[in-house]
Amino acid sequence: MKLCLFGATGGTGQELLQQALDRGHEVTAIVRRPAAIPFTHARLRVMVGDALQPDSFAAALHHQDAVLSVLGRNSFKPMTFYRQSARLIVEQMEIAGVQRLVCLTSVGVVDKPIGPLLYRWLVKPLLGNIYDDMRQMEQIIRESRLAWTIVRPSRLVDGKRIGQYRVGASGELDRAYSISRADVANCLLNQLDTQATWQQTLAVAY
């Protein structure tokens, strides 16, 4: 499958890129800093682009089978990065005729209490602006005409891919404490093999 990947240089993105190549996919990675990908591969094409500048990535979407977005940005101030990038990626996918989108957000967008007390009382309020922006991002994707799947992981940690984790088809999970970036990447790639999760939001955690 031909995949276009946004966010390939982040922690989850690096795992996703490597696993996609290991599965035999052809990957076009849209990155602002190509040097942040320290290897080459016969099925990897690295292109300079910015998710907020559609002219920089529009051409890369043509003839792709699917788009995966694991973009990330942190801020304690009000932000619009997630909603803006989602709107632009969706618009350019529709123009290019690419239907399949798998996108990463967070269980933090859920209003009900989820996770340990420290996260609920301290961490989640600190990240409130990020989660607000992600909610808008999810809404933009849901209102699109794409065959989308949104994946909401719990707290991301470093660790090996286990391949065993819980998936909440409602977009929520009780006791959603953590999951490795490697297993999140595994979950994201698994969505490409099924139509059962089209127009669905999934939560994922150990």
Features:
10 strands, two-stranded parallel sheet, 206 residues, 5 helices, single chain, globular, Rossmann fold, 8-stranded mixed sheet, alpha/beta
User: Which structural class best describes the helix and strand composition?
Assistant: alpha/beta
Radius of gyration: 16 Å
CATH C-level label: Alpha Beta
User: Count the strands?
Assistant: 10
Q: State the shape.
A: globular
Distance between the termini: 28 Å
CATH architecture identity: 3-Layer(aba) Sandwich
| Element pattern in H and E | EHEEEHEHHEEEEHE
Poorly predicted runs are none
Share of β-strand residues: 15-25%
Overall average pLDDT: 93
Helical residue percent band? 25-40%
Helical run tally: 5
What about the largest sheet? 8 strands, mixed
Order of strands side by side in the largest beta sheet?
3-2-1-4-5-6-10-8
